[in-house]
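Q: what sequence does this backbone want?
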């Protein structure tokens, strides 16, 4: 396959990516994190998970700026995903050309456009596809520095710092690659570039801390998230069962990212080992890809992984490497096929990826977005039938249909997130609640006397046990989702560990108390 590099190709790739994203965008805030970001655009406070720690300051500010023009938080944030998804494809093309050749660059770009995982996250209000862009751009700059363009160390330091303002983990995972790329630069320039990184980082870190209420409040919020959510789930604490789960999860997420390319990987690696063709693994390329991929991969393998978007920090590296494997495999098979099959093979993978995204029911498919929009809209419509002056809403910490979505789309209601958790220190997590798009924390649910009834969203597959619906009205939303409602005294049936009190009966007239 011949491919002449022209300035038209990157522009065409950019336009094609935009065109493939626009028809499939989510119409409602997809994830609880999406709502956190949307609420932070109005009032930034990490303590109240607007957004959740570690803060995503520059992402929220970008969304706030764009929302000034579109006046729709979801549209603003999804537009960012579309834009940066297209830019990711373009940078993958340029990096593929630098690492290998224009043919590999084009193959990698085509695979990136149709990667189900990249495609999906280009349609929803989350940060992961923007991290993919910054990861690829930083890798591109690092490679150019490695090849002798020392002047780019300043840009690389600035971009690395800006990436930290989008997702704070990005510079942590990419710092080894950055240090490797600048190791041949003079010591004075290395120190100066690190100083530049710190200065630019402080430009977003200091405002983030100030808007959160100070460093102490920020650290407390971060600690709260670690204690009650992501912490204490590592392989070092949970053992081999966690290692098996995380390795299986990572393999699944990578497969969702490259589709049928996983087969090409397996066949090519088998062929390389069997034929002892390790010469194709250029030493500098091997170190470069290892430092790009392994820091984040090992963290997700050993510490914590939960979302397919996590792997997008290193998926561009795998896609570029896959394009080289396709060219290599095509070359090895040329004696049988008498032709270059790299383009037909890539187009086959592209078609498979398109089918996965559009037709499958995987969590990174269009059907997932469409079903979510439909179900969430039905939930909001169902809850809106209750009188907000006499009904309290209780909604669990469901990721896609939870407290945050209900609070955001029904600001006139008082909404509680009954989520009883204890940490390894014995601390009990406070309850998040809110009304009028204002988030609050409480150690107990204190209801006004006028509240006579409750309504809640229940998702069967996410419950530890069934509950007795006696005395409640059950309204099905789908086969797995329904709304339960009834007298406020029955709320404890569903949420037995949540302390609930009526304001007028505080004198020991307790409905229930958490053990």
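A:
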């Amino acid at each position: 396959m011949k491919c002449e590099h022209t300035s038209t190709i990157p522009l065409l790739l950019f336009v094609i990516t935009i065109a493939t994203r626009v028809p499939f965008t989510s119409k409602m805030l997809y994830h609880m994190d999406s709502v956190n970001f949307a609420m932070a655009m109005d009032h930034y406070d990490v303590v109240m998970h607007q957004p959740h720690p570690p803060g995503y300051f520059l992402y929220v500010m970008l969304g706030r700026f764009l929302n000034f023009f579109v006046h729709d938080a979801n549209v603003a944030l999804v537009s960012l995903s579309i834009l940066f998804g297209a830019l990711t494809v373009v940078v993958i093309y340029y990096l593929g050309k630098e690492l290998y050749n224009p043919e590999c660059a084009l193959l990698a770009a085509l695979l990136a456009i149709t990667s189900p995982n990249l495609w999906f996250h280009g349609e929803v209000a989350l940060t992961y596809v923007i991290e993919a862009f910054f990861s690829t751009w930083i890798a591109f700059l690092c490679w150019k520095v490695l090849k002798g363009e020392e002047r780019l160390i300043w840009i690389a330091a600035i971009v690395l710092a800006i990436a930290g303002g989008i997702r704070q983990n990005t510079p942590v995972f990419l710092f080894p690659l950055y240090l490797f790329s600048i190791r041949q630069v003079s010591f004075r320039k290395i120190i100066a570039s690190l100083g530049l990184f710190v200065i630019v980082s402080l430009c977003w870190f200091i405002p983030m801390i100030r808007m959160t209420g100070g460093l102490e409040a920020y650290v407390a919020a971060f600690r709260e998230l670690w204690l009650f959510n992501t912490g204490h789930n590592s392989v070092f604490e949970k053992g081999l069962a966690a290692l098996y789960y995380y390795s299986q999860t990572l393999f699944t997420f990578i497969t969702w990212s490259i589709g049928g390319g996983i087969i090409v990987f397996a066949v090519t690696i088998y062929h390389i080992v069997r034929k002892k063709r390790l010469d194709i693994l250029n030493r500098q390329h091997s170190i470069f890809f290892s430092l790009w991929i392994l820091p984040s991969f090992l963290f997700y393998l050993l510490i914590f992984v939960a979302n397919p978007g996590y792997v997008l920090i290193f998926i561009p590296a795998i896609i570029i490497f896959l394009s080289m494997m396709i060219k290599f495999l095509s070359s090895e098979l040329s004696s049988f096929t008498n032709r270059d099959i790299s383009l037909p093979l890539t187009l086959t993978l592209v078609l498979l990826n398109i089918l996965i995204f559009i037709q499958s029911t995987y969590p990174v498919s269009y059907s997932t977005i469409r079903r979510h929009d439909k179900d969430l809209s039905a939930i909001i419509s169902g809850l809106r039938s209750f009188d907000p002056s006499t009904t309290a809403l209780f909604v669990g910490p469901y990721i896609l249909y939870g407290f945050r979505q209900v609070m955001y789309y029904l600001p006139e209601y008082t909404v509680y997130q009954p989520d009883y958790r204890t940490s390894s220190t014995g601390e009990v997590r406070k309850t998040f609640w809110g009304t009028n798009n204002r988030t609050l924390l409480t150690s107990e649910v204190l209801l006004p006397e006028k509240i006579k009834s409750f309504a809640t969203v229940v998702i069967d597959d996410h419950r530890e046990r069934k509950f007795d619906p006696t005395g409640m009205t059950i309204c099905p939303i789908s086969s797995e989702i329904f709304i339960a409602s009834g007298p406020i005294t029955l709320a404890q049936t569903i949420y037995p560990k949540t302390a609930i009190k009526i304001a007028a009966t505080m004198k020991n007239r307790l409905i229930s108390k958490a053990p």
